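From the methods appendix. Each design record in this collection lists the tokenized structure first, followed by the designed amino acid sequence. Records were kept in a plain field format so they could be parsed without special tools. The example shown here is representative of the layout used throughout.

RECORD:
FOLD TOKENS (769 positions):
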């Protein structure tokens, strides 16, 4: 038998003689490696794995920018000029997310869709799994609109039937031909289930535009994605876009003053918001792995101190230090192999659990698996742990030689260097545990402050139901306003509803429009602040429970043909007219020829618009009859159960338009909880990791204290024989444990002060220190 085989057999026999130690070591390592591999699978699937598109490193998101906002959308005129002039792009495509009402296959349903330009899928280079994708060759007068569907929608709504190809569906009241099914890996924009071609070179505007819509430069309403030319860097493309932007600023000073473009890699666009949180969690779980390894190494050191006489005898009988070292390493590798195998099983289950528990804001969840890379990480961690276990006990054992042990017997078993190494490992465990506890404390404190944050209105009993209208049946603002007015009239008479209104966007839902707002006395060449624009009905503030600070709410005086009016938030009023009553003052909304004028008739408090953690932005509210969008939601107060409200909305909307599908109701309490789902996830994950590290560190203190007592039995007996009482002995032992705790705590506090500063972007209402 080979030497390695003999070492492994000897290691198995040695570990079998101490089954309790072996089981504890394997279980500890399995949990540490399993948890680390599970979280690495998430880290790998989200951040490290390339996007599943051809040459994905060349894909970029194209944003319009201005001095006040860096992630603006695109106007038709600017987009078409960019598409014509930019040489850095192989392909530039536009898309606009919107709600699709789909009929022609069972009951009408409402799904998340996107209207895209015909070259959209050429950007990604992704072929259809069934049929084909969209292409520019079929564009032309009279050609029907085409669509492709996601793999999930194909399976859920069409039973995975190949007969979907060529099927005619009614999408927002218009005939659309299904030409293909996309692979499950395609998910851009995230969560979209159907992509349909636009009617022209750009996605259709959600509101009617005056004049030639292709020349409009005021309304920025759709997004763009591009594929860079081969060998073209982002910096070179950015320079070219800057030159084009300067030319447009010169040619169109009224609309393009300060406007430019910004490129972001598609991968960065997708994962940028979650990268800091995943980095923190991965660092935390690696700390847990280090604590687990240090804990097992401490146990191995304690165990080796009891085997020093055995090793000394074997050395005296002719065993070389190399042979003893190999056997120690073999024992460590055996423990690591068993722990790693068990850890992989735990990691497979843990990865699925993390995907299930992760908030939907984390992108690419469907791509997260325990793949080959994650398995290699588990193997590498196991090997590293095995070497650590094997080598750590050998240093003190061989540092001073083994022959004195045969001379002094058991008195020599308490090697000073072994004690120092054990103490250092335990102090390190405490330091890592304290760092994690500090981070967890910050995140939990931040989460508690976030849950106590006032969104700006009472959410209990408030329910939202989205009622978007298809533009084919409701092509203009007049018909849209008539539908919403009739729906509100009917709902006010419904016994299930105490108060009802319509609005878009709703608080904490995001997705609204923005515009420059400035007093009329401002010079035309000076832009006012960018603010959120919302379209609301007369009872909106009363239904949400938002009080009026000054002035009045909207009412029947604010009809479509009446002089335009607006209500502004406190922060917008303070920016435009600090210390002055804004009621009756006139403002301009937007820039250029399409700018609109309005009179301020009211001021309301600020409310949270996007997420609970985001500061309330300046906001301007316009009456729905004067600024109608086909995307309004019904917001109602009724009982604390959302079912009666949803039933009432579906019943009354069905009486007006039987073909109009209505989405699910969403209680605002649920919307608020969804807005803090990601902070809650990372807070409790880090809390779990820190609790595990603290438990392991506690076991480490117990182990080294117990070993110290056992190794000093003769010394303690002599002390008692000379008159020491038991309480003095207890203080002596406790002093050593407290000394280790104090050293570890000092190191941990220093590390926490430095490392928690990396968490600044994850905190709300609490400083990193």
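DESIGN:
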């Amino acid at each position: 038998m080979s030497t390695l085989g003999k070492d492994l057999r000897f290691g198995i026999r040695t570990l079998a003689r101490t089954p309790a130690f072996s089981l504890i070591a394997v279980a500890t390592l399995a949990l540490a490696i399993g948890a680390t591999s599970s979280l690495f699978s998430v880290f790998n699937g989200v951040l490290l794995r390339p996007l599943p598109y051809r040459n994905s490193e060349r894909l970029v998101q194209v944003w319009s920018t201005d001095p006040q906002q860096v992630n603006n959308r695109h106007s038709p005129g600017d987009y078409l000029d960019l598409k014509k002039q930019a040489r850095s792009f192989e392909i530039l495509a536009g898309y606009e997310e919107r709600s699709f009402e789909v009929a022609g296959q069972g009951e009408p349903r409402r799904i998340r869709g996107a209207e895209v330009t015909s070259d959209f899928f050429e950007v990604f280079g992704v072929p259809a799994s069934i049929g084909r994708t969209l292409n520019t060759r079929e564009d032309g007068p009279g050609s029907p609109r085409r669509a492709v569907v996601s793999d999930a929608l194909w399976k859920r709504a069409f039973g995975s039937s190949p007969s979907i190809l060529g099927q005619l569906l009614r999408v927002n009241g218009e005939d659309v031909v299904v030409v293909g099914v996309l692979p499950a890996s395609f998910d851009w924009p995230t969560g979209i289930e159907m992509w349909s071609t636009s009617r022209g070179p750009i996605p259709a505007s959600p509101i009617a535009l005056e004049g030639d819509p292709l020349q409009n430069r005021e309304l920025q309403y759709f997004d763009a994605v591009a594929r860079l030319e081969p060998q073209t860097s982002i910096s070179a493309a950015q320079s070219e876009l800057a030159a084009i932007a300067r030319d447009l600023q010169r040619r169109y000073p009224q609309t393009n003053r300060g406007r430019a473009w910004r490129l972001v890699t598609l991968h960065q666009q997708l994962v940028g918001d979650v990268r800091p949180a995943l980095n923190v969690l991965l660092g935390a779980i690696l700390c847990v792995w280090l604590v687990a390894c240090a804990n097992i190494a401490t146990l191995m050191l304690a165990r080796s101190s009891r085997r020093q006489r055995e090793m000394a005898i074997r050395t005296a009988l002719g065993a070389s230090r190399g042979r003893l070292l190999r056997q120690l390493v073999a024992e460590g590798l055996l423990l690591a192999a068993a722990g790693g195998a068990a850890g992989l099983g735990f990691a497979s289950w843990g990865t699925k659990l993390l995907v299930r528990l992760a908030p939907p804001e984390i992108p690419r969840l469907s791509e997260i698996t325990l793949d080959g890379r994650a398995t290699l990480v588990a193997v590498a961690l196991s090997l590293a742990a095995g070497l650590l276990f094997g080598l750590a006990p050998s240093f003190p054992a061989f540092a001073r030689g083994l022959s004195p042990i045969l001379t002094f017997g058991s008195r020599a078993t308490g090697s000073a260097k072994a004690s120092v190494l054990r103490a250092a490992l335990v102090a390190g465990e405490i330091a890592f545990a304290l760092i994690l506890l500090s981070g967890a404390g910050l995140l939990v404190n931040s989460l508690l402050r976030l849950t106590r944050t006032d969104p700006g209105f009472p959410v209990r009993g408030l329910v939202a139901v989205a009622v978007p209208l298809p533009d084919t049946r409701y092509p203009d603002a007049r018909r849209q306003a008539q539908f919403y007015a009739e729906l509100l009239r009917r709902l006010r008479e419904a016994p299930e509803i105490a108060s009802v209104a319509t609005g878009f966007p709703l608080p904490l839902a995001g997705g609204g429009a923005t515009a420059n707002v400035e007093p009329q006395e401002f010079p035309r060449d000076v832009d006012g602040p960018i603010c959120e624009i919302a379209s609301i009905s007369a009872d909106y503030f009363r239904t949400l429970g938002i009080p009026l600070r000054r002035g009045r709410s909207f009412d029947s005086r604010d009809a479509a043909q009446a002089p335009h009016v607006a209500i502004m938030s406190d922060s917008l009023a303070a920016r435009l007219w600090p210390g002055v009553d804004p009621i009756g003052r006139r403002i301009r909304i937007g820039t250029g020829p399409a700018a609109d004028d309005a009179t301020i008739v009211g001021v309301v408090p600020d409310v949270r618009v996007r997420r609970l953690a985001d500061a309330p932005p300046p906001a301007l509210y316009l009456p729905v009859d004067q600024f109608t969008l086909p995307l309004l939601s019904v917001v109602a107060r009724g009982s604390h159960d959302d079912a009666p409200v949803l039933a009432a909305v579906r019943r009354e909307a069905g009486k007006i338009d039987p073909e109009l599908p209505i989405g699910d109701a969403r209680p605002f309490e649920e919307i608020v909880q969804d807005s803090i789902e990601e902070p809650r996830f990372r807070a409790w994950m880090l809390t779990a990791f820190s609790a595990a590290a603290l438990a392991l560190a506690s076991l480490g203190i117990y182990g080294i204290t117990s070993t110290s007592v056992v190794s000093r039995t003769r010394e303690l007996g002599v002390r008692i024989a000379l008159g020491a009482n038991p309480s003095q002995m207890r203080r002596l032992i406790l002093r050593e444990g407290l000394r280790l705790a104090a050293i570890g705590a000092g190191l941990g506090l220093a590390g926490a002060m430095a490392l928690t500063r990396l968490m600044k972007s994850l905190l709300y209402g609490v400083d990193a220190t």
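APPENDIX NOTE: Residues 321-357 form the longest helix (37 residues).
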